[in-house]
Amino acid sequence: MNCLPIESESWRSSLRERIRLECAILRALIQWGLAESASDICRSLEEHFGAALESCLDGDSLRSIHLSAQDRGFVRDLLRDAYLRTREIPRRGIAQARLHEGLLTGFEELARQIIRSYEELLLKPERVARGERAA
Q: Do 79 and 107 contact (CB within 8 A), yes or no?
């Protein structure tokens, strides 16, 4: 008998991991003052990294997945474009200072936070597989 996806522990685990990833990214974007564009940025990130996430979370691939310099560039460009679209929106002092410095540095720090969140999720199955092999 076929069971519903929600009855599968792996499906629920995958859903929890995706929710944690999205929360971490949204939290970082809001802290940086990009709340207006946060949902659009998350949607673009999900579209860009969707194939890697699907293969990783579905357990099709237990090999390590590392994000390339091209992926990092995509994230930095996405953040820069989002900021430039919304730069006329008034922001608090600390967010304004972060965004201004981020624009000058190519949003390197925020992009690094987002990439780190994705890499942690993408590399998690590899750690689980290593633990099972060791046991």
A: yes
Q: Which amino acid is at 25?
A: I
CA dist 112 → 21, 59, 120, 132 (Å)? 14, 25, 12, 30
Per-residue pLDDT of the chain (135 residues; tens, 9 = 90+): 567 777 778 888 888 888 999 999 999 999 998 999 999 999 999 998 887 777 665 555 444 556 788 889 999 999 999 998 888 887 778 888 888 888 888 899 999 999 999 888 877 655 444 444 444
String of b and e for 6-18 (b: at least 16 CB within 10 Å)?
eeeeeeeebeebe
Residue 36 DSSP class: G
Task: Report the alpha-carbon distance of residue 102 to residue 69 in Å, rounded.
Answer: 18
Locate 124 and state its tokens: 């998690």
Q: How many residues does the chain have?
A: 135
Separation between Cα atoms, residue 125 and residue 103, nearest integer Å = 34
Count other Cβ atoms within 10 Å, centred on residue 78.
Answer: 19
